[in-house]
Design brief:
Elements (H helix, E strand, L loop, with lengths): L1 E6 L3 E8 L2 E9 L6 H12 L15 E6 L2 H14 L5 E3 L20 H14 L3 E6 L2 E7 L5 E8 L1 H11 L19 H29 L9 E5 L3 H4 L8 E2 L3 H13 L5
Helix pairs in contact: 1-2, 3-7
Length: 269
């Protein structure tokens, strides 16, 4: 079994792969204060419930793949792999690791590991050109060329960040449930806010994707040839309201981690 760990700013998503199949997954809050020992206890509690794994931490795990946008958590996860999975090959996605994705950026080292992993999975599953829309703490748009190259992207404030800011800065507004309203025209303050969030972000996704697609294919290409893949914990909120999403793959980052692990596996031997 391969354990994949995607550490985001708000949530950490973990997945277990048996070959190419994801057989279990979990989503927990990302807490930069957790120590390596606390993370080990958390992992043991989650994986101890799976019938294909042993009762001891590490039983049944043949490899680990990690990407992280939170340096403090990554530091502790390195300690977890050293202390509790010492005999298990572990790969952390960082500069120098083979991802199979050429990065055509001014400074390739500044691109988030999760974005490169997403690009690797998108190319493997759907080919290029492609756009990955990841709706998490931030909403990111990542562009992949027809040759599978990461050519750049867009970063905007995420849905929850925007909602929290609106609730904090609006004197008569408050925190609301993130849900689709009955109508576009809200009949209450809550519905009006929900409408602004759901349809506003759906419109943002449509508009930015159209512009990226035109840039990807150039003046002689067809933007409809670009595959658009949505992922991230908040993707279901706007999926039914966009016109540009071709595929929804909630485990895109975990699949990418599996691919990166496999591409680096020969170096473990």
């Amino acid at each position: 079994m391969l354990l994949t760990i995607d550490v985001g700013n708000t949530h950490t998503v973990l997945g277990l792969f048996d070959g190419e199949e994801i057989v279990e997954h979990w989503r927990v809050s990302t807490d930069p204060r957790r120590t390596a020992d606390e993370l080990a206890v958390l992992l043991q509690g989650l994986m101890g419930m799976h019938p294909m794994l042993g009762s001891e931490l590490g039983d049944g795990i043949h490899g680990i793949a990690i990407c992280s946008t939170v340096p403090s958590v990554l530091h502790e996860l390195r300690e977890v792999t050293r202390r509790y999975y010492g005999d298990v090959p572990a790969i952390v996605v960082e500069p120098g690791v083979k991802t199979g994705v050429p990065i055509l950026m001014d400074n390739p080292k500044e691109v988030g590991a999760d974005r490169i992993v997403n690009a690797a999975a998108a190319v493997e599953l759907y080919g290029g050109p492609a756009i990955v829309v990841d709706l998490g703490t931030a909403t990111t748009f990542d562009a992949v060329s027809v040759r599978g190259e990461y050519v750049g992207g867009v970063i905007s404030p995420g849905i929850e960040i925007s909602m929290e800011a609106l609730g904090m800065r609006g004197a008569l507004l408050r925190k609301i449930e993130l849900a689709r309203p009955r109508n576009v025209i809200g009949k209450s303050t809550v519905e009006a806010m929900q409408s602004g969030v759901v349809y506003g972000f759906a419109g943002q996704v449509d508009g930015i994707v159209h512009r990226i697609a035109r840039d990807l294919v150039g003046p002689d290409g067809d933007p409809d040839d670009v595959r658009v893949i949505a992922t991230g914990g908040l993707a279901p909120v706007i999926l039914g309201e966009t016109t540009v999403i071709d595929e929804h793959e909630p485990w895109l980052t975990l699949i990418g981690l599996r691919l990166v692990y496999e591409r680096n596996a020969p170096s473990f031997g």
